[in-house]
Amino acid sequence: MRLRIALRAILGLALLSAAGFGIWIASLPPASADLTPPQVPQAETDALLAALEPPKRARPLVAIIGINDATETTDYLLPYGILKRADVAEVVSLATAPGPVRLFPALTVQPDATIAAFDAAHPQGADYVIVPAMSRDNDPAVIAWLRSQAGKGAVIIGICAGAKVVAAAGLLNGKRAVTHWYYLDEMRKIDPTISHVPDRRMVADGGVVTTTGITASMPMMLTLVEAIAGRARAEAVARELGIARWDARHASGAFALTRPFAATVLANRLAFWNHEELGIALAPGMDEISLALAADAWSRTYRSKVTTYAASGMVGTRSGIRLIPDRQDADWPRDRRVPTFSDGKPADVLDRTLDAITARYGASTADAVAMQLEYPR
């Protein structure tokens, strides 16, 4: 009897909570319009490329910084994979402390070095520092290191919500910037002097470059390749990746906290009995760009959690990222495996993954994933 009463009480509280959420969801705007991004003047594109010219070395040194406990998956891995593939710079992945970097929402990697080891090897600093989104915007080690690198003349590139970390370091004071649509207000709270630029995926101002949401790392890195090695080299890398264009065009109005997005997230979270653990097999030499896009997308459905597995320990990717599997298993239930589509070009993986998510969970869930990734489908 007591158990039955307790269950009824819990159910009643859940229904009241859901009703409250329902009122909140009803107050949100409907789906955003399918806006066409405005053209970017050539002079603005030229200025962006000029701002990204190598500040020190003919062959630049690029450092990608992360905190060990929570750094965004795609923000950390795509810059590494694209720049390594382009072979126009020396690229190192860093962490604030020894040990692995736990990426979110999926994957774990062993970085190349700590920031202390990097400073000892390169006292003159990096040419470029790439700052992914992190679980903490104000990590003391990251803030101090970014200020030090900026003081040594490095160009600081904040990817997605990494712009908040750059802002927390005081490097966006009085400057123009962008960030992930969901975190724009947070960035403004960190530094109210920041001037947001709508309808741009990338913005440069005073030695700092920022981007919009997660998938902006792809056009950002191709723009960096173009600034370092020229248009022809960037076009060759883009063809290999399967990317048709990488300019700064962006329809900001298409990304917002809408009624369909919030309703889908709430419904998927409440349907806890339908949640599942999906497996991605790690294999030596696999493409880290494709892996990151697939793992990131499947981990944002609010229906699934991605677990990586491999027959042995650490697995090296095509570009030298060292992956640490969540489980050392030789196999995984076939109906709960998800592919990374290694048979195609990396840029196509996200579309193919969203199609697979649609087939498994429905179009609204795929749309919610694309919204989180700020991906212009």
Automatic annotation (TrEMBL):
This is DJ-1/PfpI family protein. Pfam families: DJ-1_PfpI (PF01965). Residues 65-226 form the DJ-1/PfpI domain.
